[in-house]
Amino acid sequence: MNPDTRTRSAGPARSADSAGSAAAAAEDATALRERAAAALTTARRRTLALTDCLDDAELLAQHSPLMSPLVWDLAHIGNQEELWLVRTAGRRPALRPDLDHLYDAFRHPRADRPELPLLPPDPARRYLREVREQSLDVLDRAGTDAGAGPLLAGGFVFGMIAQHEQQHDETMLATHQLRRGPAVLDAPAPPPAPADAAELPREVLVPAGPFTQGTSTDPWALDNERPAHRVRLAAFRLDTTPVTNAAYQEFIADGGYHEPRWWTPEGWAHRCQAGLVAPLFWQRDGEGWLRLRFGREEPVPGDEPVVHVSWYEADAYARWAGRRLPTEAEWEKAARHDPAADRSLRHPWGDHDPGPLHANLGQHHLQPSPAGSWPAGAAPCGARQLLGDVWEWTSSDFAPYPGFAAFPYREYSEVFFGPEYKVLRGGSFAADPVACRGTFRNWDYPIRRQIFAGFRTARDADPGESA
Length: 467
Hints:
- By secondary structure, this protein is α+β, with helices and mostly antiparallel strands.
- It has two domains: 159 residues, Up-down Bundle (Four Helix Bundle (Hemerythrin (Met), subunit A)); 264 residues, paralog of FGE (formylglycine-generating enzyme) (Alpha-Beta Complex), CATH 3.90.1580.
- It has nine helices and 14 strands.
């Protein structure tokens, strides 16, 4: 064939390939912008729903010294969005630089925030609207490919801000739970447990061997979830479902809160000093228990996962039961490892986003689902409810993964690494799917009880168990 002919024939083909690639890239960029806009919109809708239901006095009040006034969270959400989407990603002039010091979470402890000259509710809402208008314009104009830089690649900064707002929404929901007064929130009860829930085995076996923990590919994963790395674990047994209220009541009835041998020295000291005798929001009702749930008093449902327990309480229960809390790596292997393909999934059920049958997420219900729910969301090992319902305490301190690099700022994760904090995994009914995945890491002090935290227990597998 004549070389000139070959060259001429190849030219249009390459042009077609280039055009196809460009079209595909444009389509991907459009889909990414739509995903980012949807995540931001969903978060804002929830933020406003959690604040518009209360009058100004309730928004300005501090309902617990553990929490900020809701109006502080409201403007802090806008301030973080302005800092990262308007000023940093958009390279635009600051809208309200005078607010930066007021809404710096590291500068002002929560207990001190009511004394600050905070924006009143209506100005805070106007500020949110002004910032969001600018943010969406930045999103329309910004590049999101690798050439745009690490902050914009994959739309990371937009995902980071959507996650930040949803995390504050969960915090604001916890403030609603601490608030005294008539109920202002409502949601349908979760579906009843499936027919097979009562027949589930007490525990599942997770065989020995390596798995990949963390991620290096999820574009919206945060710095503490990175990088992916191989971890080898011995075989262990894990509860099929989180520990229930009924099971926890057995611990109480057996004197678990009054027997120091079940508690670490620090845990026992805290139990005595704080006078702990039951999960937060529980009170005796004759021989039974009542709980306060978002302004409503009701009997404690025995089949729900226990919630509002500290790490110390979870650890004491596990010791009483002759078991232990799982390590963070054990929890993640149980939740993500697919032994048939020898790979880690994004979620227990696979790589696709949560659907209505997978998990209790996103504040669609204001309580955990009955134990054994959501069979479509089961992990390959057979465990259920690893995502949603309740955050699950692990035995692990919050620490960096090998090769960790802080991004985009040290204060997101790095300053919290250390033995003061314990890791929680899995999300809760109050966590939004954008801020909940198999690699997502939460952390808190071991005394914390106002968060939507429960647990499941584990034990070493018997010798010779591998399948």
